[in-house]
Automatic annotation (TrEMBL):
<keyword id="KW-1133">Transmembrane helix</keyword>
<dbReference type="Pfam" id="PF01755">
    <property type="entry name" value="Glyco_transf_25"/>
</dbReference>
<dbReference type="GO" id="GO:0016757">
    <property type="term" value="F:glycosyltransferase activity"/>
</dbReference>
<dbReference type="InterPro" id="IPR002654">
    <property type="entry name" value="Glyco_trans_25"/>
</dbReference>
<keyword id="KW-0328">Glycosyltransferase</keyword>
<feature type="domain" description="Glycosyl transferase family 25">
    <location>
        <begin position="71"/>
        <end position="172"/>
    </location>
</feature>
<comment type="similarity">
    <text>Belongs to the glycosyltransferase 25 family.</text>
</comment>
<dbReference type="InterPro" id="IPR050757">
    <property type="entry name" value="Collagen_mod_GT25"/>
</dbReference>
<feature type="transmembrane region" description="Helical">
    <location>
        <begin position="28"/>
        <end position="48"/>
    </location>
</feature>
<keyword id="KW-0472">Membrane</keyword>
<protein>
    <submittedName>
        <fullName>Procollagen galactosyltransferase 1</fullName>
    </submittedName>
</protein>
<keyword id="KW-0812">Transmembrane</keyword>
<keyword id="KW-0808">Transferase</keyword>
């Protein structure tokens, strides 16, 4: 009796416990599910963020579409729609991507007055500031390298192949690269340069119609060519710091991008034409007037 009782009571105890363990198991199961769901959603979010990062990187990855730089910025006077059309034709022929950046003009009097007293015409000041603000954008947007063009540009017909060779020779420590220039002497050659267009050390490159700036180059330019204390026009001010050895600069000879040579938007500066071997604009049917 005693035994059976105790057995019985044990049995009833087990019976009493059973629903509790069951409930417990369900609770554990549910919490496990919740934890699983939370970690799964965390994982997904991480993955998603990661792919967003990858997309961002892809957006500004150097490629042939940007001639091996993160971006190609075109300093553009909004009213010159003729120039924009011409550049769009060049872009579609070469498969290039341009970012048009509105230039500061001589009519932006407020900005010009702020940067004031320098002995330059309003157009020259506007040009100076347009380029200077681009260096700030390069830093703000975190680009490693940007090719800066003015909107009056003509390209060598095989520029993509030629630039691929130039990038092979370009030292990792480069800060500026003149793809086009005016009155530039031929400095010492850099790299193997098997083709016609070769990389050289810069001497005193003038003009700003086609030059690339690296991230570190942009930082230096912001400090070294302060528009509050200019040494002259923007191209001259940069050429001076290159000559002083304060920034690592290279030039391509013969140049791959020239000014097409419209009457210049900057009065007092002669319209300069330096010739390409094979002009893209000629190829596309344009003729200089
Ligand atoms: C970029 O252009 C060069 C020269 O034309 C070519 O050799 C290379 O394969 C191109 N790269 C890509 C990714 O298309
Ligand atoms: C580009 O074209 C020029 C002129 O036709 C030629 O001399 C040069 O070898 C070419 N460069 C490349 C990399 O194909
Ligand atoms: C470039 O010009 C040279 C000489 O004018 C010509 O022989 C060559 O075929 C041209 N190259 C291209 C890619 O049109």
């Amino acid at each position: 009796m005693n035994i059976s009782y105790s057995l019985n009571s044990d049995y009833s105890l087990i019976n009493m416990l059973k629903p509790i363990t069951k409930r417990c198991a369900i609770k554990i199961y549910i919490s496990f599910l919740i934890i699983l769901l939370i970690s799964l959603s965390l994982c997904l979010r991480l993955l998603f963020n990661h792919s967003e990062d990858l997309n961002l990187q892809k957006e500004s990855k150097p490629s042939n579409r940007t001639l091996g730089f993160d971006r190609i910025f075109v300093v553009h006077l909004d009213r010159r729609t003729d120039r924009r059309e011409r550049l769009n034709e060049i872009a579609s022929y070469h498969g290039l991507e341009f970012d048009y950046i509105s230039a500061i003009t001589k009519d932006d009097e407020q900005i010009l007055r702020k940067y004031g007293s320098a002995d330059m015409s309003p157009s020259q000041k506007a040009c100076y500031l347009s380029h200077y603000f681009i260096y700030k954008q390069i830093i703000d947007r975190g680009y490693n390298s940007v090719l800066i063009l003015e909107d009056d540009a003509d390209f060598e017909l095989n520029i993509t192949a030629a630039m691929a060779d130039i990038h092979r020779d370009l030292p990792a420590s480069w800060e500026m690269l003149y793809v086009g220039h005016c009155f530039e002497g031929v400095g010492g050659q850099v790299g193997k340069g098997s083709q016609v267009h070769r990389l050289h050390k810069s001497v005193f490159p003038m003009c700003t119609h086609a030059y690339a700036v690296s991230h570190s180059g942009a930082r230096k330019l912001i400090n070294l060519i302060d528009p509050l204390i200019p040494r002259g026009t923007v191209d001259y001010s940069i050429a001076v710091i290159i000559k002083e050895g304060k920034i690592a600069s290279y030039s391509v000879h013969p140049q791959l991008i020239v000014q097409w040579g419209d009457p210049s938007d900057i009065p007092n500066s002669q319209a300069l034409t330096f010739h390409l071997l094979n002009s893209t604009l000629h190829f596309l049917g344009y003729n200089r007037t």
